[in-house]
Amino acid sequence: xxxxxxxxxxxxxxxxxxxxxxxxxxxxxxxxxxxxxxxxxxxxxxxxxxxxxxxxxxxxxxxxxxxxxxxxxxxxxxxxxxxxxxxxxxxxxxxxxxxxxxxxxxxxxxxxxxxxxxxxxxxxxxxxxxxxxxxxxxxxxxxxxxxxxxxxxxxxxxxxxxxxxxxxxxxxxxxxxxxxxxxxxxxxxxxxxxxxxxxxxxxxxxxxxxxxxxxxxxxxxxxxxxxxxxxxxxxxxxxxxxxxxxxxxxxxxxxxxxxxxxxxxxxxxxxxxxxxxxxxxxxxxxxxxxxxxxxxxxxxxxxxxxxxxxxxxxxxxxxxxxxxxxxxxxxxxxxxxxxxxxxxxxxxxxxxxxxx
Length: 356
Fold this sequence. Notes:
Elements: H1 10-39, H2 78-92, H3 102-117, H4 133-141, H5 147-154, H6 158-168, H7 183-203, H8 214-233, H9 242-272, H10 280-298, H11 306-316, H12 326-346
Helix pairs in contact: 1-12, 2-8, 2-10, 2-12, 3-9, 3-10, 4-5, 4-7, 5-7, 6-7, 8-9, 8-12, 9-10, 9-11, 9-12, 10-11, 11-12
């Protein structure tokens, strides 16, 4: 180079790139440890990592061994996450009318299970594949796609553009400088990478009318957790390709859609039977058993990649952490991280998880 200047040696470029990747991975690891520690003391003292086993806790309130690298069995159980979310929903919901007796509650639960088991036979619950999903997926995974080209896809659907603005203004994605009110401003503020992060979330955004009821509050919190989970799934990590990051984001979002469907089924089942509302334990059990199964059913015709379908099968089959592939494990880790972040900002559910 002229003027006596020297270029940066290639070895330094490699070292800096590796350092950046390790720093990102270390940040995710620290967040996972913190979230795991916050979720460990679930209802009745049951541990988050393995129901029915005692959780070893050191003097600082963190699970023993938290300083070690996270082993496959160290992620908190899905039920512990759902207990916190549903407990928070119950605490913030408006008072519900008196519930039905035990027989009415049992009948409502049986009706919900019957509907969930045959969810594809109930079109009103099954979100159809968004028309722009294939086109948007190709653009997001194309390293040469510009923010303007992605925005042009979103602009084809005014409702989708509106969803993008809502996501861009959410706590997970919001930037400084005031609210984002126009698609052009969203493109300018988010940039290509930011738009890639928000576009898929905007495309799959469900319609949730938060009227303050238990069901609405639960669906709202579940989707907020889904957005944060998808955001964590997108965090770069050593050895993880960009396509895999976006596949993990899509998987996390579709799983969140499945959870919202379960809440909708519960709302109708309890409403039709005059049973009032279910207890938190019942909601948690149904969500734990059926959310990913519903996600697998409603996305069967969506044309998802084979890797995403395999990862969803692994989550639906509730495989242990050490048997999960990289996509499924990344989503499960993202859900734990998001739950820990929500506990950091909201605090634990008043009265403890699992309350009726």
